[in-house]
Amino acid sequence: MNGKDPSSTTVLDLGVARLRNTKFFVDNGFQVYCADFKDLYKEGSKTEERLLELRKKKNFHQLIFPKEIYNIKQNFFDIILLLNVPTVMPIPVERICLILMIRRLLKKEWSVSLVF
Ligand SMILES: C[S@@+](CC[C@H](N)C(=O)[O-])C[C@H]1O[C@@H](n2cnc3c(N)ncnc32)[C@H](O)[C@@H]1O
To answer: Which atom of ligand 1 is nearest to 65's Cα?
Structure first.
């Protein structure tokens, strides 16, 4: 990330849960796309509260997983976060599908780093 202008750096935070990491990147001026299952953003939850705050920011974008991820064009993201996500996925083949999907979305000059 060194030397990158945050305002033109696209970040996908996939599997956001309580949006902690999303908030960090939004607050630091990155163009942030958060993605998770629809059920996660239930009305009245702590997550919904944070979501409503984040929606006021122009550099925040919300995607419902998986449908809206497929509408994103290839090589769109500079950074993709999968923090604590593959480790909670019980079906191994789903993890592989997820990695293949993010490889398609990530800009070519970036490599995939997996941190578990
Ligand atoms: C342990 S939380 C990680 C939250 C956040 N990244 C963090 O580090 O604080 C795991 C997240 O992965 C999402 N998740 C679980 N299975 C998934 C799957 N098969 N595909 C995409 N996301 C999944 C869950 O909805 C949940 O938000």
So the answer is: 21
- pLDDT tens digit at each of 116 positions of the chain: 667 799 999 999 999 999 999 999 999 999 999 999 988 877 777 888 899 999 999 999 999 999 999 889 999 999 999 999 999 999 999 999 998 998 899 998 766 666 55
Q: Which two tokens stand for residue 73?
A: 């064009």
In a domain, 110, yes or no: no
- Structural domain containing residue 51: 6-105
94 lines ligand 1 (CB under 6 A): yes
The helix (run of H) or strand (run of E) holding residue 14 is: strand 10-14
Position in ligand 1 atom list of the atom nearest CA 98? 20
Q: Measured between alpha carbons, how far is 24 from 5 in angstroms, rounded to an integer?
A: 16
Structural domain contains residue 112: no
Report field, pTM of the whole predicted structure over 0.85: yes
Which tokens sit at 84? 């604590």
Q: Is any atom of ligand 1 closer than 6 Å to the C-beta of 64?
A: no
Domain for residue 37, yes or no?
yes
CATH number for position 95: 3.40.50.150
